[in-house]
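Practice set, problem 2.
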Amino acid sequence: FKLPSDSFKYLGWCDIEEHDVRGNQLHCPRVREGPSEEELFFRKEEHTLKKRKRVTDTEKWEKRLQENWENCAELNLSFQDLGDLYQVENFKRILRRLIRVEKLWLVDNSLTDLSAIRLPRCRELNANKNHFTSFKQLPKIPQIQHLSLAENNITTLSGISDLRHTPLESLTLKRNPCEFQERYRQLVFSNLPNLKILDGIPKLPEDYSPPDVRLFYRICTIL
C-alpha cells in the first residue's frame, strides 16, 4: 500500500527480511527544502515555482508528525547540497530538534557556523569536509566522545579548550591548517588531558608537554 505522506505517494513499502537498521536510525534522508511561495514572490522568482497542490493545515500537521526527528538516536545528514540560504536555515531547524541524537554525520554540507545548535546527547559527531574555521563555530556537544573535523579550514587551536570538560576520547583534525602548527600534538593534548587518540594515533610519550622552563627560574637549589 502507499505511504501516507503526499511526497511519497508513488512509493510503496518494501519488506526487507534481514537488516540491522532500527526504528530510531535514519541514514542519509534528504532534508533540504526549497524556498516557500512567499519567499519566491518577494525575490521575484515566482516563475521558478511549479504548480503545487494546495496543502491543508491538517495535512501539514500530519506530515510534521512523520518527521520524528526528536527521537532519532543515529542520523546521517551528509551530502545535503545546501545551495540556498533558506535550505541552510531549514537544515539548522532540523538540527535544533535532535535532542536525543547520539551519533550524527554531517559530512560535506558546506557548514560554516553551528554555534547556536545544542546536541545534548551527542557522543559521536562526524563533520568532515565542511567550512569550519574555528572550534568556536562547533555546536554545543557536552557529551561528545568521538569528534571528527577532518578537511575543514580550522587555522588555530584557539577555542579547543572549550572541549576540556567533555568526555572526549578521540579527535580527528587531519588536513586542517592547524595541523602544521608547531608542537601541534603537544598543544592539543595539553588542552585536552582526557584525550586518548588524535588523528587516529594514540597518545605517545613525546605528546606530553615538557615542563615549563620558566618554573626553573623560581626554584632555589641549595647544595
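Problem 2, part (b): a different protein.
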Amino acid sequence: KLFFTDYGNAAKVERCDMDGMNRTWIVDSKIEQPTALALDLINKYVYWLDIYLESVEVVDYQGRRRQTITKGRQIRHLCGLALFENYLYTINSDNLSILRINRYNGTDVRALARLDNAKEIRVYQKRTQSAVRSHACEVDPSGMPGGCSHICLLSSSYKARTCRCRTGFILGSDGRSCK
C-alpha cells in the first residue's frame, strides 16, 4: 500500500494500492493541514502531523482507533516524521533541532541535535526493514520486471501486478508490452 496526505479542497490521509487503484480515505474529518506521516508497519498504524490544528495523531490502517499523541503551538514548526521503536522523530524548523517524541506519551519530548536546513527525516535500521517475499514484479527470465516491458507496479497484493508504460507509449492488448 501507498499512504499519503492531501490538504487541497478537503484535507485527508489516504491509502491506495501501489498502482494507484483502490484509493481509500483513512481520515477525512477534524483534519486541516496534514504535512507529514509515518507508518508503524508491524502494528499497522498511521501517524501524521497537522500543522494547522497543531497536533500529532494516529489511526490504524482502516482509520479507526484515532488518538491524539500531542498538541500545542510547537507542532506548527515541525516538518518530516519518522518512527522507530517507541519514538517519533521530527524536525523543528524554527530552531533546526531533531526532536524525539514518545509515541505513547506525547509529553516526553526531547531535542537530540541541531541540523542546518533539514526538512525531512528518515530512520534507516535493519529492524525497520521487513523481509521481502517473492512478488509479482520480480524480474522474469527475459529480464523484464513482472513480465512488463516498461514498468511493473504491485497491485492489490504482492501476488498481483499492473504493467504501465513510460511517457509516449501505450500499453498493448496483452497488458504487458508497450508500443
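Answer key, part (b): The chain has two domains: 2-125, 134-178. The two ends are 28 Å apart (CA to CA).
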